[in-house]
Specification:
The protein is an alpha+beta fold. The protein is built from 8 helices and 3 strands; from the N terminus they run ααβαββααααα. A hairpin with a 2-residue loop joins β2 and β3.
Length: 143
């Protein structure tokens, strides 16, 4: 039941050991986007991604191997660039989950003038717009 921040902390606590691994298979309970971004900025490339819908739980599994990674957008990290590329059968649900999170954050932040003026609010708005583009482009490919 570890979130991405805990996984990242474990990897950072002993980078030498982490970097000696050939393959990491990770299943963050939360924060998969930040884990993907961290991996790619620390010498790992995404090797495979999988989604599992075991109601009421929805799991993201990420496999990473040593090597240079392409630059991914914030939306690609949120959804999973390999999931997008393979048009995963659960991609529609993944996109909707990410959009729902953005909508909820924007609604909550929208109650405060200060929050609406923040850089974080603008970042979430931009992510929501990117996710909507991905959703509209993938809608016929997903279920």
């Amino acid at each position: 039941g570890m979130g991405a921040s805990t996984i990242i902390s474990i990897l950072e606590d002993d980078m030498e050991v982490a970097q000696s691994a050939q393959l990491l298979v990770l299943q963050p309970m939360a924060g998969a986007a930040s884990l993907r971004a961290w991996l790619c900025s620390h010498g790992w490339q995404l090797a495979a991604e999988e989604l599992v819908d075991d109601a009421p739980h929805f799991y993201e599994i990420i496999a990473a191997k040593r090597g240079p990674a392409p630059a991914y957008s914030v939306a690609e990290c949120a959804v999973g660039p390999l999931l997008l590329a393979q048009k995963h059968p659960l991609l529609g649900k993944q996109l909707e989950r990410q959009l729902a999170t953005c909508r909820q954050l924007l609604e909550n932040m929208g109650r405060s003038e200060r929050a609406r003026a923040s850089e974080k609010y603008k970042e979430i708005e931009a992510l929501k717009a990117e996710l909507e583009v991905l959703q509209n482009g993938k809608r016929s490919d997903s279920k």
